[in-house]
Amino acid sequence: MIRARKTAWGALALVLAAPNALAQSQGKKPPQDNSGQRQEPNAPIPTDPLAMSPTVAATIGTDYQGRPRPEGPARWRFNGTFEERKGDLRVRLLPPFYIEQTRGLLDPAHPELGQNPDRQSLVALLYYQRRSQDVSADVLFPIFWNFRDHQSHLTAVGPFVHQESPTGHDNWLAPIFFAGNHTETNGHSGYFVVPPLLTFSWWSPDSSFTSSMALYFRARSGSDVDAGVVPFYFHGDNGNVDGARRTYTLMPPLLFYHSWHELEQASVTVAGPVIATSTPYRDVFDVAPFFFHIVGKPESGGIRESHTTVFPFVHYGHTPDESLLATPLFLYRHTADTHTIITPFYSQASTRSGSAKLEFAGPVLPLWLSYVDKDVDQHTWAILPFLYRNTSRTRTDFLTPLFGRFENIGVSRTYWAFPTIVSSFDQHGYETDIHPIVYVGRTDQSRHTVVAPIYWDFSDPDKRLTIGFPLFWRFADHKDDSVVEIAANALYTQKRTAEGLSWSFHFLPFFAYGASPTGYFWDVLEGFAGFEKTASASYVKALWFPIKVGAGTQQQTAWR
Predict the structure, then answer these.
(1) Cystine design at 519: which of 69, 121, 358, 533 (Cβ 3.0–4.6 Å)?
(2) 494 and 481 Cβ atoms separated by less than 8 Å
(3) Residues 518-531: pLDDT tens digits?
(4) Residue 68 DSSP code
């Protein structure tokens, strides 16, 4: 890449100098401009067209910092341990007591890379060690863990864990004490946890939360603060100073609650059975559950209204457009174009100034019903529970105790047969149900079949769900070719991405295996022992703890 860019700089210099160089090659002087027009400048030929300034040399080039694949002949020898050397790679083995791999040794094929050893070793399958310029690790499984990654350090000895990084630190003594403090761009964040004392606290520049002994708590989000002593006292204040302040106070033992919204000019107060609320539009005063009263405030934007209820005896309310009177024996309601009266023996309701009218006798007497709507030419009548009939310009329905038919003319039909058989048809599909066992139907491209509680199947162009309860479950998404399938204790999953197909198989809880375009994994007892290779790293799992043991597939490809 550097050589190509140097050539480009030289070619540019040659092009700029071409007119003057051509004239000199023919033994002539460059032509003079005697017409008075502006003469273009001639760039002199540089003495070294490929020369670059230090600034350009530091800017251009490749950002690859890895090492090439080891080159040259391999050499083997045995001197207490088996040793192989090839290029900058050295491997030493004395299985199973000692395994060592070192990269970055002096490579005769690439002396320009120098030496930057990166050594990893495993002793007696218990002690793992890594040493390199930026990363180091010491693991005496399972009691001691020590890692360094550039300026970050992590040490774990049994239940004690200490971590340091340029942004902060963490200290744990599990399960007794957990604490940490970190620096963010706009302040500090941290946490403090003491489980034996039921004490928990975390904070950040924008929010915080503290809880102690499961009684006291305090939560902050910006200027909004909530605090209390459970279950005796709770208080909150959003701290707004721009005219939108909100506060509340709750004392459950005293059955007391009060809140105030400054922007809405609204308040709520509860003291035992007494409930009082106030807004700019109305006042409410209740003594639950017997007395309820509402009064409007027309002087501040509300309407002139009044509603009073003395439960269960009477309710009366009125507004400029409506009046209502209700007692246990009758109801009367009147508006500009409606009139309603309901009694135990006869009821009548008319709307749209008499265009629609409903009359029925009952329920004390045998129930007879009649409804007429002149605007849509509808007539509905019934002698319950023996016969129901409805006709209009768009519908024709009838119902008996054993059979019913309901039709939206030219749109849909539904049939019902005693006791629970329902079948319907419309422009999009059909549905047949025998409640509560069988459900079969189709709507456009979606279908379903249910034989409860054993078989369930739902499908559409994008996905499908199939359940053979309780042993078989299958979930499929056709858009990304993903599948989740469970058969007894076997689990299979797959999903297609831009890189390819990823899948996994689990024979729970004994064994699992899977692969993806960037790696693969296998597990025994869900992580008791296993191995995982990803695009960024390789991990060995032991007693459910992952241990990073090498670079991922992308870095290995770069080395080679």
Answers:
(1) 533
(2) yes
(3) 888 999 988 888 88
(4) P
